[in-house]
Design a protein that fits this description.
Cofactor: FAD
Number of strands: 19
Keywords: FAD, Flavoprotein, Oxidoreductase
Shape: globular
Radius of gyration: 21 Å
Number of helices: 14
Pfam families: BBE (PF08031), FAD_binding_4 (PF01565)
Protein name: FAD/FMN-containing dehydrogenase
Distance between the termini: 31 Å
Strand content: 15-25%
Structural class: alpha+beta
Family: Belongs to the oxygen-dependent FAD-linked oxidoreductase family.
Helix content: 25-40%
Largest sheet: 8 strands, antiparallel
C-alpha cells in the first residue's frame, strides 16, 4: 500500500525505518515527540489529495504541517499520517494588482523576501520562520495590524483540499461560507495549499527594540496603553518582557537580566519616524535601544535567533479589552521570572484597522479587544519543563480575571480545548455548521477543534 502512495506522489514519503524519518518527524517544539506512521512531504496539491485518500482508506489520523511552529504540536501525530507542506514555498507577486500568492508551506520570510522586491507587504507575524498558512488561518497578528488589519483581513482567496478529496477555491465569490470560516477558524476545514493576499506599499519602516528597567515597567505599560489608543494607525509594535540577549547595543554587564521592552514599528512616512518612535522614549528612561530605519523584512526576522527549532514550548493567550492598572500589576508579579532568554511576554495592540471589521464578518470574533497577550514559555533544557510550565500557568491564572474569556488560537496550548467556544463567541455555531458541511467526520481534528 505504501508503494502505491509513493507512486501517486511527487514528493517524498517517509515511514518508520527510513533514513530520514527521524528528521522528517521533528517539529519546532521538542517537547512534542511523536512517531507518525507516514509522513508525506507534498510538492503539489495532487500530493495532498493522494495523502488524504491514503489516510482515510487506512483509517489514519491526519496532521497538517505548514511552518511547523504549532506550539501544541498539531503538525504531527502518533501512528497517523502527516501532510507536510514545507516544499510548497513558492510566492508569486503581481505588482499590478498588488497581490501575492503563497504556497501552503511558505514562511513569512519567504513571503516578505518576495514582496519586498516590489516595495509591498501585508501583515505577517513577529518571527519570519512562522508559516504563512497557520498564522493566517488563526487570524494573523503582526506589526502592521493596526494599519492594515489582520493577515486574514488581507486574504483574497485560498486553495483548499477538503476531507473528501475535493479541490476548492474559497473567496468572496465562491464557497464564501468556507472563506468566512478560514479567516480565523484555523485548520478545521481542509488543507490550505495556497493563499492569495492583498498587498500595500511598504518597503522601509522606522523602529526596533527599546529596553526599560523593570522598575519602570508599570509606567511603560500604562503609557503604551494610553498612547496606542489614539496613535496614528501606521504606528505598530508592542510592549514586552524580555531577558536581555547578548547583543552589542546592550551593556555587557546587563546581559541575562529581565527588562520591560517596547518593539516599535512606524510604517508611515519615514520623515515622521523618529518623532513617532520617540513617543515611547517619553514613557521612561531607555536602558538600551536599537532603533532606526530598516527594511520591513529585517524587523520581521529580528528575533528569529531567539526561537530556533529544538526548544521546549508551552504558551498561554488572552484577549484584553482594557489593560487595567490591576492587570499591569499582575504582569509585574510574574514577568521577572522569565525561564530563559528565549521566553517572552508580548502584549499586541489590535485596534485601528482591526476594529473596522465587524465581529461577524470573519471567524475572528474579538474585534472589540484592544490587545492580545501571549505568555510564550520557551526554554532549551527539558529538565526545566515542570518549573517553566508552572510559571506560564501561574502567570496566566493571575491575568485571566483581567482578560476576556477567549484567546488568540495561534498562541494557545493543547490543554486549551475547553476554551474553543469562548474563542469564537457568537461565531461558534456558524463555524460548527461550516464544519459539518465540509468536514462532517471531523477528519481535521488535530487543531483547536470545532466539533461538527
Amino acid at each position: 500500500m505504501i508503494e502505491n502512495l509513493r507512486e501517486r506522489t511527487r514528493g517524498q514519503v517517509f515511514v518508520v525505518g527510513d533514513e530520514e524519518y527521524d528528521a522528517a518527524r521533528r517539529v519546532n517544539n521538542w517537547m512534542i515527540d511523536k512517531r507518525p506512521q507516514v509522513i508525506v512531504r507534498c510538492e503539489n496539491t495532487g500530493d495532498v489529495m493522494a495523502a488524504i485518500d491514503y489516510a482515510r482508506t487506512n483509517d489514519l489520523e491526519i496532521a497538517v504541517r505548514g511552518g511547523g511552529h504549532s506550539v501544541p504540536g498539531f503538525g504531527t501525530v502518533d501512528d497517523g499520517l502527516v501532510i507536510d507542506l514545507s516544499p510548497m514555498r513558492n510566492v508569486r507577486v503581481d505588482p499590478v494588482t498588488r497581490t501575492a500568492r503563497a504556497g501552503g508551506g511558505a514562511t513569512w520570510g519567504d513571503f516578505n523576501a518576495a514582496t519586498h522586491a516590489f516595495g509591498l507587504a501585508t501583515t505577517g507575524g513577529i518571527i519570519s520562520t512562522t508559516g504563512v498558512g497557520g498564522l493566517t488561518l488563526g487570524g494573523g497578528i503582526g506589526y502592521l495590524a493596526r494599519g492594515l488589519g489582520l493577515s486574514c483581513d488581507n486574504l483574497v482567496s485560498a486553495d483548499v483540499v477538503t476531507a473528501d478529496g475535493r479541490f476548492l477555491i474559497a473567496s468572496e465569490k465562491e464557497h464564501d461560507d468556507l472563506f468566512w470560516a478560514l479567516r480565523g477558524g484555523g485548520g478545521n476545514f481542509g488543507v490550505v495549499t495556497a493563499l492569495e493576499f492583498r498587498l500595500a506599499p511598504l518597503s522601509t519602516i522606522y523602529g526596533g527594540p527599546m529596553f526599560f528597567e523593570l522598575s519602570d515597567a508599570a509606567a511603560v505599560l500604562a503609557g503604551f496603553r494610553d498612547l496606542i489608543m489614539d496613535a496614528p494607525e501606521q504606528l505598530g509594535g508592542f510592549p514586552a518582557f524580555q531577558i536581555a540577549p547578548p547583543l552589542p547595543f546592550i551593556p555587557e554587564d546587563r546581559h541575562g537580566e529581565p527588562f520591560a521592552a517596547i518593539v516599535g514599528c512606524w510604517a508611515g512616512d519615514l520623515d515622521e519616524g523618529e518623532a513617532q518612535i520617540s513617543k515611547f522614549r517619553e514613557l521612561a528612561p531607555v536602558m538600551a535601544e536599537h532603533v532606526g530605519p530598516m527594511p520591513y523584512p529585517a524587523l520581521n526576522s529580528a528575533f528569529d535567533a531567539l526561537v530556533p527549532p529544538g526548544l521546549q514550548h508551552y504558551w498561554k493567550a488572552n484577549f484584553v479589552t482594557e489593560l487595567t492598572d490591576e492587570a499591569i500589576q499582575a504582569h509585574l508579579r510574574h514577568a521577572p521570572g522569565l525561564p530563559a532568554v528565549n521566553s517572552t511576554v508580548h502584549i499586541y495592540p489590535i485596534n485601528g484597522a482591526c476594529h473596522r471589521v465587524t465581529p461577524d464578518a470573519t471567524a475572528f470574533a474579538y474585534r472589540d479587544a484592544n490587545f492580545a497577550t501571549v505568555i510564550a514559555g520557551m526554554w532549551p533544557d527539558p529538565a526545566q519543563n515542570e518549573a517553566s510550565i508552572d510559571w506560564v500557568r501561574s502567570y496566566y491564572d493571575d491575568i485571566a480575571p483581567h482578560s476576556e474569556a477567549g484567546g488568540y488560537i495561534n498562541f494557545m496550548a493543547g490543554d486549551d480545548q475547553g476554551r474553543i467556544r469562548d474563542n469564537y463567541r457568537q461565531n461558534y455555531d456558524r463555524l460548527a455548521e461550516v464544519k459539518r458541511r465540509y468536514d462532517p467526520d471531523n477528519v481535521f481534528h488535530l487543531n483547536q477543534n470545532i466539533v461538527p
